[in-house]
């Protein structure tokens, strides 16, 4: 009897070892259990009038981007700032003032409010009007001047501010942050599922922002064939690496892409267009709905949405074509510099 119990114990240990062998390291970290999270939570639970006054006084600064704030006013603290558009509109956004020299402006976030919805309400980065081939552009928010959401809710809902089309930038930074994580914890190292930036000034070739880039490469159903994708840009990792990026997506998806890039306007076998393939470049095969986000107004009936088919083989199942749960349940924050 004792022998059988020992064998069972050893077997359970072996199973536990196998289950973690293919889990990305970031999935094991629970940010709410870190000391830094506890310290920040304690600090933010108390009213600090000196800090509130400092943040509120940022509204007197005049700049169109976080890069300008850093250069003109020597602002070096991550957090919420006020920016002004070329037409004089004042708005709030988040500035990353520390990563790779700082000066990164948050302009949008892509948040999947319901992975089971198929182009339903909340799918602002694809279509909220149903899966309809007669509406090939869907909501069209990749290339229009609509704005929505607030900076503080950017990990719990879609977000797009005027900087998306107003700022002329050179590079991008992308953060994958767990859904519903409060803004004051975004820059914690343990918070990120994946973080990276570009450094080759590629946006200068495409009008200086995503608004102009997607005018050149429309995110529209039936706009082209599989080979008509947009640019694929090399990235520099701030959290994660090529291997951890590869492991965030499903085993079947890994055979189709090369990690270490951000790709724009990918088109799948069904001629549906997706806006961004985060961290990867499609190379062989065109089942991009399983690892690219955003889109036009029509997909295969079992797809469609801001994360079109990340749950194909069970939500967070980490099998077949399904992306990992941590990738599926994270908002994608888009920054300019």
From TrEMBL:
Signal sequence range: 1-21
Domain Fibrinogen C-terminal, first and last residues per copy: 57-107
GO MF assignments: metal ion binding; oligosaccharide binding
GO cellular component, as recorded: extracellular space
Keywords carried by this UniProt record: Calcium, Disulfide bond, Lectin, Metal-binding, Signal
Name the UniProt record assigns to this protein: Intelectin 3
Native source organism of the sequence: Oreochromis niloticus (Nile tilapia)
